[in-house]
Design a protein that fits this description.
By secondary structure, this protein is α/β, with parallel strands linked by helices. It is built from 7 helices and 26 strands.
Length: 397
């Protein structure tokens, strides 16, 4: 069996970045830039402007009664020049009049028929100078992560309306097993609803990919081969669930071996020991366990980093914390475990407790969990009072 590190390294060695495409900026939320450094073509802001509704004045004229000499609003192309002893009413975002160096907020001034009385003011108060955020020619470096609303706002402020991004990796998903029925259909004796197709599609989307869900695969080698060939024809990566163990009706692994290459098929991990990885026609193929928890946990460990690598991103993008555990949670002594836990703040640190049963068929504890607690090989349970690394898969509540 491969270790987690060995398996992940072998998978990532087969990652090929997806081609790029140009998209309008307003369609790029969550997309990954090809170039994360851009050159500012102009100053941001391009002119000095007011950060408050109020009165533009000379600091040297305050305090005192000043004559009103006009008004300037946001979007005004010209602002009245400011003579000594005068003030101009100004709106937030409006350009500063020539000669003014200060803004007195509306609530600090007293307007009357004679003019406006202003208190003492400091030069530069409530004025956004030219280039406060960015200067023309600056190299603006954005995080090497999917675009956030704030990063999109930065690009928009620079006047950039279209950007080059990585195409989302297309991931074909096929769930296998004669017992599976699509949710919404009627169950016959011996059948269960397919939880993996929808769950893995959601995991693909969360990782930044585009899922292509194929029909359910029966436990028939010819049918499995047809679905596998279909998947690699329409996608950048094929993910199958079920059919990778040693049973007489487990055909996914044998199909990969027959029409492609199989690098490995067992990993020292709990849950999810049977996991097949190989390639067919240059496309990576990953066979996940059929149990829903095992499928989702191994997706998290191996497929999510691969999808991100295809986008030019590193790692799994998940934060990690050190968490204390005050209970003995059993595990397989021979494998590294990723236990479903709830992580909470505890003073300046974190504490984790079991989210419920740890069987690979129990989905509700995984839905309740916000972390996967990493417990190494060689121990049969967590040690009460011990501290372990936890991968956060949800918000700390």
């Amino acid at each position: 069996m491969r270790s987690v590190e060995e398996a992940l390294a072998g998978i990532l060695a087969n990652a090929t970045p997806t081609p790029s495409e140009w998209l309008p900026l307003d369609s790029c939320a969550g997309r990954v830039l090809v170039h994360h450094v851009v050159t500012a073509a102009s100053d941001v802001p391009p002119f000095a402007n007011s950060s408050m509704d109020g009165f533009a004045v000379r600091a040297a004229d305050a305090p005192g009664m000043l004559k009103l000499a006009g008004e300037v609003a946001a979007g005004s192309r010209e602002a009245p020049a400011l003579a000594a002893g005068t003030a101009v009413r100004i709106m937030t975002g409006a350009p500063m009049p020539a000669g003014a160096d200060t803004v007195v907020p509306l609530e600090e001034a007293k307007e009357s028929e004679r003019g406006v009385r202003v208190p003492a003011a400091e030069a530069g108060a409530y004025v956004r100078p030219v280039g406060l955020d960015t200067r023309a020619g600056d190299q603006v470096e954005l995080p090497v992560e999917p675009l956030t609303p704030a990063s999109i706002a930065v690009l928009a402020s620079l006047g950039i309306g279209e950007v080059e991004v990585r195409r989302r990796p297309r991931v074909a998903i096929v769930s296998t097993g004669d017992e599976l029925v699509a949710p919404g259909e009627s169950l016959e004796p011996g059948q269960i609803f397919d939880a993996n197709s929808a769950a893995l599609a959601a995991a693909v989307a969360e990782a930044g990919g585009e899922a292509v869900i194929l029909p359910l695969g029966p436990d028939d080698p010819a049918a499995i081969e047809g679905l596998v060939r279909w998947g690699i024809a329409v996608a950048d990566l094929l993910v199958a669930s079920g059919g990778v163990s040693v049973g007489s009706r487990d055909h996914v692994r044998t199909v990969i071996e027959r029409i492609g290459t199989l690098d490995f098929w067992r990993i020292q991990v709990q849950p999810g020991k049977p996991l097949a990885f190989g390639a067919i026609d240059g496309r990576p193929v990953i066979g996940l366990p059929g149990n829903p928890v095992s499928a989702l946990v191994t997706f998290e460990l191996f497929v999510r980093p691969l999808v991100r690598a295809m986008l030019g991103l590193s790692g799994d993008g998940r934060p990690r914390v050190q968490a204390r555990v005050d209970e003995a949670i059993p595990k397989d002594e021979g494998r590294r475990a990723y236990l479903r836990v709830v992580v909470q703040r505890d003073g300046e640190g974190y504490v984790a407790f079991s989210a419920g049963g740890q069987a690979s068929s129990q989905l509700r504890p995984l839905a309740a969990a916000n972390g996967l607690l990493i417990v190494p090989e060689g121990v049969a349970a967590t040690e009460p009072g011990g501290t372990y690394e936890a991968v956060l898969i949800g918000a700390i509540r």
